[in-house]
Amino acid sequence: MRTYFSLLNLAVIMIFVIGCQSKGSAPFQSEKNIMPMSNHEKNIVKSENPYYSRTDTTRLHVSDVEWKKVLSPDLYAVSREKDTERPFTGKYWEFSAKGTYYCAACGNKLFRSDSKFASACGWPSFFEQENLSSVVYQSDNAYGMNRTEALCGRCGGHLGHLFDDGPPPTGKRYCMNSICLDFEAAN
Ligand code: FE
Fold it and tell me: Has residue 159 got a pLDDT over 90?
């Protein structure tokens, strides 16, 4: 009889424990599945790129194999394979909010919004880089043209091109791909 009651107690305890577990886990999972991604969560996803930093200015030397693991396919195609997004399609070509633009691949500070100007070219355009190490250049003779390629000064990723038809005071036009830019609004 004593053994019978022990087994009965054990069965009751197990049913209680299993019940608590199912009640505790089910709402959490369903909430996680239906909740839209918040800005905080987007930042967490971004933080999975171990090379991304808005404070570390150390020059990066990362292989394309490694970049491919941490960048989205679209960003990888532009940043590492020098692809160009179609004009009038990027999220920043017709965008005038006040703030700062960073490299979307590594977090390097690139431009201030007060150096951005409305260009008819269909890509976000700036007349001045944020600091001397924001953007670096190299000659680009692809497609039968002689252009100056603009690259991130920290990660070496392709950003766009630099032209001499910009407005005063510099006369420069940094013609950028939106996908290579992260924007942070001014407080
Ligand atoms: Fe970069």
Answer: yes
